[in-house]
Amino acid sequence: MWIRSTMTYRFSFVMTLLSNAVANFFDFVVILMMFTHVRGLGGFSFAEVAFLYGTTGTAFGLADLAIGQVGKVGRRVRDGTLDTLLVRPVPVLAQVAADRFALRRLGRVTQGLLVLVWSLVVLDGVEWTPLKVAMVPLMTLTGALIFGSLMTAGAAFQFWAQDGAEVANSFTYGGNTLLQYPPSVFAGDLVRGVVYVVPLAFVNWVPALYVLGRDAPAGLPSWAAFAPPLVAAVCVAAAGLAWRAGLRSYRSTGS
Amino acid sequence: MRLYLAVLSGGFRRHATYRMATAAGVFTNTVFGFVLAFTYTALWEERPRLGGYDLPEALAYVWLGQALLAACSLMGGGFEDELIERIRTGDIAVDLHRPADLQAWWLAADLGRAAFQLLGRGAVPMAVGACAFDLALPEHPLTWPAFLVSVALGVVVSFAVWFLVALSVFWLMDGAGVVQVAWLSGLFFSGMLLPLTVFPGGLGEVARMLPWASMLQVPADVFLEKRTGWGLLEAYAFQAGWALVLLGAGRLLQAVATRRVVVQGG
């Protein structure tokens, strides 16, 4: 239904679809412009940074497409319209995610995928093994689950902090920006934070560095490259619990 | 005039009410400031004096960007959503009957909002940035007021752009597309992602001439004392010039658009 409603304003839809792809593309243009001035960033070549960019961009895009709307739940909590969703026989989370489903978010995934494929073409010096080949699609999926969990947890947080949507954005959008660059760029404490506290590093840094044949960040053992499915499962479970706790604490507005 | 001053202070107080949203915004600006500051450090260590800035200046630029993001509505989030909604639903007809000018009314409200955002969402990230990194701060005390004038002009240019964007809804009915294109342009051409002085060749020259340069690049250069004396006057003239052109265009569009309004009776 939301797809049909979007299509009513065709000009606007085309513009949003394009600008969504361009939005991410500008991030990439920045990296391109940086590399017109330098040969490497934090010891990483352009192709390697593009690989990091493509993997996080695709994972983020997939999560955003599936569940990105959940961040808008704060508004429904504020004005009390969440009530309508509570009485319907469909899980609230599914309803919130489908509410105003925005097809234009396809632009983000497409652009992430394009850079990812392109980086695979220009990457040289990677010794591809079947395991490494399998790692690429796997990490975009587990990465999407981790991002999706963060979005859900952020939305759950809004049941208490009614207009705190931006805090969640700093982990999701901010995390996406962070993961576009190699960990060697950042201070050790920040890297340890996204490995051990908010496990963003498992979206792409940990598996991607394994594919690129580099050491894992923050002193992780090399087998950690295979941990992302486990980390994603834990994140999904934690986000589910947070969402249920949030939903239970919801009180409608009265007037 | 008293009316518009009241609208201005109303805009300030209205945004000051959302304390949680402000705190969340400060948090986000600070997180992004850190991420950008590290990437800039990596870049400037490879290429010292890139774009005419040394590392402390480049770092100051990062935090200025975070401080001005909300004030200059580089990514939107100012008044435009509300104005678009009023145009879409037809409430605008009521506004047009008020004994106040539409553009001036929204400008006053937006100036109030920007003043609050500069204090509420600008000062704290800037202070955090200055504690965590070695930033270049103005040496001359008069640079601070000069900087604030430049920011004020930047806010007016930003308002004028968003006003045009909002009025386009009279024709398009759905504002989502234009709004998105506008915030993208704002993000890219203001120099938010990378200073415009680092943009290569022709792209850089064009970007530095566009109105968005008034919203971050010019105020930042005033702050970093790259624009002093005649250069400062030139910077002001550049900003004021765009403000006048765009406000004039908004006025023209407003006149055409209001002729389109049909009030539905019932």
Q: Low-confidence parts of chain A, pLDDT < 50 over ≥5 residues?
A: none
Low-confidence stretches of chain B are none
Q: Structural class given helices, strands, pairing of chain B?
A: mainly alpha
- Total number of helical segments of chain B? 12
Rg over alpha carbons of chain A: 19 Å
**What is the typical, i.e. mean, pLDDT of chain A?**
88
* Element-by-element helix/strand order of chain A: HHHHHHHHHHHH
Helix content of chain A: 55-70%
Amount of beta strand of chain B: under 5%
Transmembrane segments (chain B): 21-40, 60-79, 146-172, 178-199
Protein name (chain B): ABC transporter permease
Keywords (chain B): Membrane, Transmembrane, Transmembrane helix
InterPro entries (chain B): ABC-2_transporter-like
Quick recap of the structure?
The complex is a heterodimer of chains A (255) and B (266). With 255 residues, chain A is an all-alpha fold.
Can you give a write-up of this model?
The complex is a heterodimer of chains A (255) and B (266). Helices cover 68% and strands 0% of the residues of chain A. Chain A is mainly α and 255 residues long. In chain A, helix 3 (46-67) crosses helix 8 (130-157). By secondary structure, chain B is mainly α. Chain B is built from 12 helices and no strands. In chain B, helix 7 packs parallel to helix 12 (230-258). The mean pLDDT of chain B is 92. The interface between A and B is large, with 44 and 38 residues. Chain B: It comes from Streptomyces kanasensis. Chain B: Keywords: Membrane, Transmembrane, Transmembrane helix. Chain B: The chain crosses the membrane at residues 21-40, 60-79, 146-172, 178-199.
Quick tags:
heterodimer; A: 255 residues; mainly alpha; 12 helices; 68% helix; 0% strand; globular; B: 266 residues
Topology:
The complex is a heterodimer of chains A (about 260) and B (about 270).
Chain A: H1 2-8, H2 10-37, H3 46-67, H4 73-79, H5 82-86, H6 92-98, H7 106-122, H8 130-157, H9 165-179, H10 188-197, H11 205-211, H12 228-248
Chain B: H1 2-16, H2 19-46, H3 55-71, H4 80-89, H5 92-96, H6 102-132, H7 143-167, H8 169-172, H9 176-189, H10 201-209, H11 217-223, H12 230-258
